[in-house]
């Protein structure tokens, strides 16, 4: 039975809890059904473990902004915590390790954002490889999955390791295989219910392989670095290690390993799947693609390449990119949180250590927030004067102290890739491709179903 004043929810079965109330293939519709039945804050039992599901702008803001620190923990007793040996930043609890590493990552990425070797230049450098690949397919069709995945992976590799990798490079191939397998193992349908279902050995082995790979890159860095003259995030971390007192600092080579893997993992599939969604819709809404191209041509006339600042002169393009992010629902249930102390939410009592599921999907078509909640329509982000506006419910990166650490980088990537490719190419839905299927494949990160694109040069 639920404790007094605990959020309501469906009746609980012994051992299984509410697991039969949720489709294990895709529970998003069930979460919405339960929201309608029990309100924006409700509870479910995953096996014998209670969890509070938070829905809608008002409750999400109260939890993660107004009571940010109360809701900023991460569960520490899940299988994934063991697999990553409690290291890294994504699953770190609300503690000094998390605070110091988060601050370090934000500061380092900001510093690389400026100057000659800036983030913009790194992104443009990588886009050139994407353009070359597309050039080879002009007039033909190609599968864009690998192209966008490769681009997103290489941009984050440039930031972390100062280099890019060809897609068939052993380093990147094996690293991605380890991530993909472990995502399946730790997020699999029964993963939350019982650890007996996990392929535990395989998950630990994959982490070991990934760790050894990045450790080799660190060894190269240690050999070739000039202290105080960092080339990338790994060099910055090594400088930081020099400065800190080894015993009392939360920085260590062990932490660096999972930290780097975390950033690569978090920065690759998220951005590449958003780009995949963008091009899926642009091909099937050619009038939207053309209107973007008109605006891009006008603003960039006489310029070699776009800068991130150009977005301020492109309200329509901005609206389309934001609408793509809304519709793609890339991280549908955010990353699970955990309460750091006994607290209250919307009048309910929530004890310390409670598993919290932020249902970001509930914001996508929330009543009163969107002009056209059920359709792909950039008007959702434009006011009557055609100016770009961002409704409060737009939170694909979550909100509060744990909000996505890579938001700045992701937004810059999305804008520069989108604008540069649309300026150069026309993207066409192949004649023999049939009706597009917009329903994504459910996962911790949503993925559009595989599709092909036809590329043409613009006149
Ligand atoms: C379109 C792209 C992206 C989306 C939609 C996205 C979304 C999210 C979301 C929803 C969270 C969970 C926040 C929370 O727990 O409240 C998150 C966390 C995180 N993201 Fe992203 N992300 C994207 C790109 C990136 C990139 C490029 C990086 C790499 C630098 C990154 C690094 C992280 C990290 C490290 C966290 C954990 C933050 C923490 O626990 O303090 N993300 N992201």
From TrEMBL:
One GO term (biological process): xenobiotic metabolic process
Assigned GO CC terms: cytoplasm; membrane
Location relative to the cell: Membrane
Residue numbers binding heme: 404
One Pfam family per UniProt: p450
Molecular-function GO term, any one: oxidoreductase activity, acting on paired donors, with incorporation or reduction of molecular oxygen, reduced flavin or flavoprotein as one donor, and incorporation of one atom of oxygen
InterPro entries referenced in this protein's UniProt entry, alphabetically: Cyt_P450, Cyt_P450_CS, Cyt_P450_E_grp-I, Cyt_P450_sf, Cytochrome_P450_fam2
Domain of life assignment: Eukaryota
Keywords annotated in UniProt: Heme, Iron, Membrane, Metal-binding, Monooxygenase, Oxidoreductase, Signal
Cofactor(s) it depends on: heme
Family: Belongs to the cytochrome P450 family.
Matches recorded under PANTHER family: CYTOCHROME P450 2F2-RELATED, CYTOCHROME P450 508A4-RELATED
Protein name: Uncharacterized protein
Lineage, opening ranks: Eukaryota, Metazoa, Chordata, Craniata, Vertebrata
